[in-house]
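Collaborator request log, item 7. Partner lab (contact: R.S.) asked for a structural prediction of Discoidin domain-containing protein to inform their binding assays.
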Amino acid sequence: MASVRRVTRRLAVATLLGALLVPTGQAAAAQTIGYPTFSGPAIPAPPVGYSTGSTLRAIYDAESGGTDFWVDRLLARPGNDPAGTWLMTRGRGLFMNTHDPAVIGFGGNAAYWDDISGQNAYAITVGTALTEQASGRWQAPSHWKGVYTGGSLRANVTKFITHNNVAVTNLTLTNTGAATTTAALRVTSPYATTASGTELTGARRVKNDLTTIRPRLSGDGFTPSGGALARGVTLAAGQSVTTKVVMGFATDEIPESTTEYDAYRGRTPADAFGAHVRDYNRWWADNIPYIDVPDPAIKKNVYYRWWLMRFNHLDVDIPGQDFQFPVSIEGVTGYNNAIALTQPMHIDDLKYLRDPVYSYGPWLSVGQSSKGGRFVDNPGDPENWSNSYTQYISEAAWRSYQVHGGQPAIVGNLARYAEGDAKGQLATYDTNANGVIEYDWGAMTGNDADAVSFDWRPGNLDRAETAYVWSGARAAQQAYALIGDTAKAGEMAALADRIRTGVVDTLWNPSRRLLEHKHVPTNTHVPWKEINNYYPFSVGLMPNTAQYREALRLFADPAEYPVFPFYTANQRDKAAAAAAGHPGSNNFSTINSTVQFRLYSSVLRNYPNQWMTAEDYKKLLYWNTWAQYVGGNTRWPDANEFWANWNASTRTVDYRSWIHHNILGSSNWTVVEDVAGLRPRTDARVELWPIDIGWSHFAVNNLRHRGVDLSVVWDDPADGVTRYPGVPEGYSVYLDGTRAFTVDRLTRVLYDPATGAVTFPSGSGSVRFSAPFPGLRAPQDVAHTGARLVDVFAKAGVNLSSTAPNLARGAAVSASYTASGTSTAAAVDDLPTNEPLWGTAGSPNAQDWYELDFRQSRSVGEVRLHFRDDRAANRYRAPASYTVQRWDGGAWVAVPSQVKQPAVARGNYNRVTFTPVTTQRLRVVFTHAPGFRTALTEVKAY
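Returned to partner:
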């Protein structure tokens, strides 16, 4: 956010006539800020050089025999961290919302998706008061190390959290004295207090009652004693003893959390540490593209941002429609929710992780939990719900599909989500039916008190953020076209055209040659502006003519829109608002630089002009990186929620907000798509269209691109220096480690893998090498078969394992009871969103049934059931049990050999297979959970 959320402001009338007058002449200044200066120690170099295969894999392999890895060294934070004591290591659900290094073990507020109860995970004491020596602290992404001393004891501590939520502490106690001493070790946890053999166990519901964690706590040589674990250790002078404490935060929905706990419990401390750091760093080799750029500060920031994506990622598979899909979390040390506004920014970066589950999960999640309408924040955390009219999830989701591809059924979901959002936004906010959304409150994510236009006059404003509704409609159009639904594609094209006409006709002010929000009550253009006014240029909505390009002139003047700080508000307008009594705030954050990047990325390609240049883009890239570092020191990256009080004379930021290591905004995509130039496409060709910022070299290595590994390498032939051994000078693309083509310069290039032909759509160049690569496919020709992605899409109603038709679609449906506001048809609309649904709330029956009549005999051997779990309304839960029955012509009989996955019904996705039967009618009989009734969001039969 650009300032603290939930800001409430009184919107008053600005009566100054002068506020209506905006100069319309040429911009008088250029972006003169120059470039930042970085400080800090030398940034660690990789242990091996560039590879035309997987460079990160080569880096990992070079060090895999030990426990010291390049990414850990690159992002290590030694000593007393000025950003705070935040613990970098985390699991897919478990992390420390706050971290107290004074506690041996995991002190602070333990969290499972969010703070559980404001208590330690567990604490270890040794019978003697020990004090942590901050100078001995060393933290890497994979683990934390510390030194504690007291009396004649020294404790060397190493701790980490595994992927499947196991918190491990290795403790080496040393007697530094001259006499033998005994240490009374004791481990306590508020979450595990019941003795069970040599363990302590417990159970705790997490925040908002989303799931139950079942902690298990044990230690090497420890036994339960008085609600704690205890062990005595006698140490001779100079003697050391190493032990280990392990706590698993197990849940029913993640069985790996139990098996991983058992595995780490059985390992020696050294083996446990080695297994973890190798697993953690192998993830980088498996998922992250290696990126090399000339400036070490920018290179390190790229990897820091990749780590932020992992640190702010939630993958807990909670059954239902809350956090069942892997999602990107906006600020695990702060608001901690899947905020709709920021999801597309994250998706734009996440799509360049090699596993598509990272970028597909967020848009599946929001699509599944938005009732088939406009996108809203994740319902798992209703306290942090916000308005969502400034998000471009559909646009970003479509780009993620262009990168990773997949079965056409994937696109079918995307198309319907995007259509629902575009229509839903207009239905909610376009109350005057002009194709432009309007609202009157600036206290929304990404603007808060920084958005100046809302203070001009009270009342609704027609808003330029409508551009994102247009890009969503366009995404729906393209997705429908890809799966051959021409009717829907045409409908969405017409909707997009209506929105475009509404934006241009309503918001273009010809007298000032600017896009301006319009005050609806008086039909007057609003002269106070934000960067938001330029969203129509960012998404390509505006016609590319001289009169409209004139609006871009303000970006040549740092008094209007400086490259840095990247503010929300136009600075002249902000001053006018302050003079009129509405100063608001004037913060800046990575969300704002993301908006600027998107604008420059579009304008430099689609709206060329004399006011915005590649040099400005380069400055933005450098200052965005500088802002991530505390004081510009590359030792201490800290992506705060926002920053304030830029001191131009000292070139310092005087305030960094309270949320640390936040993933608000995005920027790694800029290196891939703008600097390296890779453009997502919907056909099998590869397009490069770089923004030349004068770098002599760069490499983006081992992207997963529609089923193959793709690398882009630039080595300027003009300087005669070969920077990447085995790679020729020039601008090259490699596919699966094999060179596809090389051209002589940074320019727009189009490559056809079927023929090897290289063309230059808007420029010139010389082809130095090209060869066909028939293995590269169009997105819709890619088939994803990995178990995890198959499972995730099954939960969204997509069967990636088979192309067999869903027999429930088109079936006649009936039920024993149907609650008001629900319908039997809602459960066979082929999309298991949280609503619409068929429900039985109010049913007097202990059992109810839902029937499918196929209208003719069909062979059926599988049924998929999506149960609603509406924790907020508290009416529906998965049934206590269910049975699939067929009609045998005279009676209902159970189908034979039913195998249910899971064995006990859960919220959302359940699958039952059985010996195939031939029948016209099939039904499912539900025994309701005590105190609840059953609802279905979808039934599928195969």
